[in-house]
Amino acid sequence: MALPLIRVHWLNDSRAFRVLFLLEQLKLDYEIVSYRRDEDFRAPAELKKVHPLGRAPLIELEDRSTGKKKVLAESGYIFQYILSHFDTDGVLKNNDPDMAEKIQYYLYYAEGSLQPPLTMERLLLMAKKAPVPFPISYLVGMVIGQISSKYSAGRLKNQIDYVEAEIAKNQGFLVGGKLSGADILISYPLMSVFDVGIAHKKDYPNISKLLDTLSNSGFLCHCKGKG
Ligand SMILES: N[C@@H](CCC(=O)N[C@@H](CS)C(=O)NCC(=O)O)C(=O)O
User: Fold this and answer.
1) 97-216: which CATH number, 3.30.450.20, 1.20.1050.10, 3.40.1010.10, 3.40.640.10?
2) Which 3 state secondary structure label does DSSP give 153?
3) What's the CA-to-centroid distance between 56 and ligand 1, angstroms?
4) Ligand 1 lining (C-beta closer than 6 Å)
5) Which residues form the GST N-terminal domain (predicted)?
6) Domain coordinates of the chain in residue numbers?
């Protein structure tokens, strides 16, 4: 059966780059509809015409014979769908059922556990830089510092250590010593960890090596990724 037409609704400076990388790795044809963030760094309203939440990435699948369209949202779900329907040669899958389950787990973990404290940390950094006069700036800084150490940065070390150890156990990848969809999806939060300064590359050689491996396979991200 013919593959549907795949249309990627892409937003600049966003996590949407991962879907393009996934489709490239699977050598699938696709179209890109690009959107620019507004002056407040939000997605433009047009994206809401594709999906009511209006967040990127969104994927539209169009049946080539009937024209029927299906819209997929949520990066983890988009990955799961594309891998299970279109990775017919198992390029990014693992034949071992336990490993396949582990990949699935990471598709949930990356956006569900690792990403939220990072997004919070980015927002706190923005708040910290807001032009507020002294002594209010001092008080704001104190409150932000407390929230960060209790809820975001403070909670992340455990997670980053965990990911570092998993990659060390799996010969440079998250699962089974080979590139999988999980590595591509987790790349965004892992890059953010270093971008926001929560951790330093020198302390996480395995995470750094994975990011280098992805980068060397043509994976480039130009994203400020504030959410
Ligand atoms: N959990 C969603 C998050 C989607 C999301 O927050 N996308 C951001 C870009 S990285 C966005 O569209 N932000 C613009 C806005 O919210 O206006 C996913 O993984 O797809």
Assistant:
1) 1.20.1050.10
2) helix
3) 5
4) 11, 14-15, 42-43, 55-57, 74-75, 111, 225, 227
5) 3-90
6) 5-86, 97-216
Measured in Å, residue 43 CA sits from the centre of ligand 1 at 8
Mutate to test the pocket of ligand 1, among 48, 55, 107 (most ligand atoms within 8 A of CB): 55
- Residue 171 three-state SS: coil
Cβ 208 vs Cβ 188: under 8 Å: no
Single out the residue of 74, 58, 82 nearest to residue 8, CA to CA: 58
The residue whose C-alpha atom lies closest to atom 6 belonging to ligand 1 is 227
Residue 225's pLDDT band, with cuts at 50, 70 and 90, is very low
- What is the band of 226 on the pLDDT scale with cuts at 50, 70, 90? very low
Q: How many CA atoms lie within 13 A of 118 on its CB side?
A: 27
Distance in Å, CA 57 to ligand 1 centroid: 7
pLDDT, tens only, 84-109: 999 999 999 999 999 999 999 999 99
- Architecture field, domain 5-86: 3-Layer(aba) Sandwich (3.40)
